[in-house]
Design goal:
Elements lengths: L2 H9 L12 E2 L8 E8 L2 E3 L2 E4 L5 E7 L6 E6 L6 E6 L7 E3 L5 E6 L16 E6 L1
Bound molecules: copper (II) ion.
The site of copper (II) ion has 6 residues, from loops.
Length: about 130
């Protein structure tokens, strides 16, 4: 405790809160899918406030612009209706499909970490999925 605890805690809290950007509504394609690209960088998602409609399929296209650091996208809720866990390697573009069935605000985040640093979520690599 003491010095070490304080030092690690201060590393893990470079910022006070994540800064949410404008709410971006996922556009609905002609095939009825809400398709949206999210750019991953160290340590951010852009956009980081996504709005999707309940009951319609969502195709999330995480696209990494980092050259080394792996990231991921995790979205879970207490109802078990959301269960996304998608790795996104450096410079990779991947896809995660799901159908939101519960309205609400759900955090999405990256839990990758380089020990003993805090997780990327601890560096505020997180956002909000708003299901309306
Ligand atoms: Cu990450």
């Amino acid at each position: 405790m003491g010095w070490l605890t304080v030092t690690l805690a201060s590393i893990g809290h470079a910022a006070d809160t994540p800064t949410l950007g404008s709410a971006i509504a996922a556009p609905i394609s002609s095939d009825g899918v809400q398709r949206v690209t999210v750019i991953l960088d160290s340590y951010s998602y852009s956009p980081n406030h996504l709005v999707v409609e309940i009951g319609k399929p969502v195709e999330l296209i995480p696209t990494s612009v980092t050259t080394i650091t792996p990231h991921n996208v995790i979205i879970k809720d207490s109802f078990g209706s959301l269960s996304v866990e998608q790795d996104v390697g450096a410079v990779r573009t991947v896809m995660a499909r799901f159908v939101p069935t519960q309205p609400g605000l759900f955090p999405f985040f990256c839990d990758k970490r380089l020990w003993p640093m805090s997780s990327h979520r601890g560096k505020w690599m997180e956002g909000i999925l708003e299901v309306t």
